[in-house]
Design goal:
By secondary structure, this protein is of the alpha/beta class. The protein is 36% helix and 19% strand.
């Protein structure tokens, strides 16, 4: 049976595993995200130890971004300039591939989660989905014809501009754009605006009306631009499940009947949904990357 190495490089922690399939995890380790000088050798040591005992067919890596995905560039497989300390221009794919000598699949963490949901989760049976993660930051993985959207870099949907809610005077929290989607609706923006963490706000707090409207605007833009068959909303903020009906209502209101399809008009509860894989979407998406890299 083929074995695969899977890696999630997250903003706060790293997860590495050896798996044979979606329900067959053979080994797993987690450690804090610190610096590439510390973390990349940790990843290599874990994978190499298992590779020596039972050879790995390939490796899949889902990484926090921004990352370089253009294979024609000499710095393919690295982290692009980022505000995260120590990680700007850090090579990820090259040292791991050099150490293990097997094919490596690499993509953005949210795109990796989208692949997991497409293959084994809420996107099963579909070809065109969008997975938003709404938490510490906001991003979207766009899958078209079963593949990540081919593009210059990768989508940065969290930085789209929105119409401000009347009387909303909050300046925003994005260090680049202030009041983009991430600057208005990510977890840190909620905390900065209301003075407390999102999970401590009661369901009837006005914060959720703001949140639902801003997220709905982003989804309207996504529907009009990409026309996905389903939108999946994950991340820490979306653990507040009362947001889902609020977002759906706002999407319908803002579209105002323009997208005249049954999926939107009659089945929006099945169109805008939570992830089916929970916090396993990233790991299982990395498995998809590994399997595809081996083909």
């Amino acid at each position: 049976m083929a074995l695969y190495g899977v890696v999630e490089t997250g903003g706060t922690k790293m997860v590495c595993a050896v798996v044979a399939g979606p329900d067959d995890i053979r080994a797993e380790v987690r450690f804090p995200t610190t610096s590439p000088e510390e973390n990349i050798p940790q990843i290599i040591a874990f994978l190499a130890a298992h590779h020596a005992q039972n050879p790995l067919t390939s490796i899949g890596i889902g990484s926090f971004g921004p990352i370089v995905l253009d294979k024609s560039l000499p710095n393919y497989g690295s982290v692009a300039p980022t505000t995260k300390p120590f990680w700007s221009n850090a090579a990820v794919v090259a040292p791991i591939q050099a150490a293990l000598g097997v094919p490596v699949g690499f993509d953005l963490d949210v795109t990796t989660a989208a692949l997991g949901e497409l293959t084994w989760g809420a996107g099963q049976g579909l070809q065109h989905i969008v997975y938003y993660t709404i938490g510490t930051g906001i991003g979207a993985g766009i899958i078209v014809n079963g593949q990540p959207l081919p593009c210059m870099m990768h989508p940065e949907s969290g930085h789209q501009r929105l119409s401000r809610i009347p009387l909303d005077t909050f300046a925003g929290n994005c260090s680049f754009h202030l009041d983009c989607l991430e600057g208005l609706a990510a977890g840190p923006a909620i905390e900065k605006r209301w003075g407390t963490k999102a999970n401590l706000l009661p369901p009837d707090h006005v914060a959720w009306e703001y949140e639902a409207d801003y997220i709905a605007q982003a989804l309207m833009n996504t529907i009009l631009l990409v026309s996905p068959q389903r939108i999946i909303l994950g991340g820490g903020v979306m653990e507040q499940l009362h947001l889902f009906p609020m977002i759906r209502r706002n999407v319908l209101s803002r579209l105002n009947g323009y997208i005249n399809t049954p999926a939107i008009l009659d089945h929006i509860d099945e169109y805008i949904v939570p992830p089916a894989l929970g916090n396993q979407a990233g790991m299982l998406g990395a498995l998809v990357l590994a399997m595809r890299a081996a083909e």
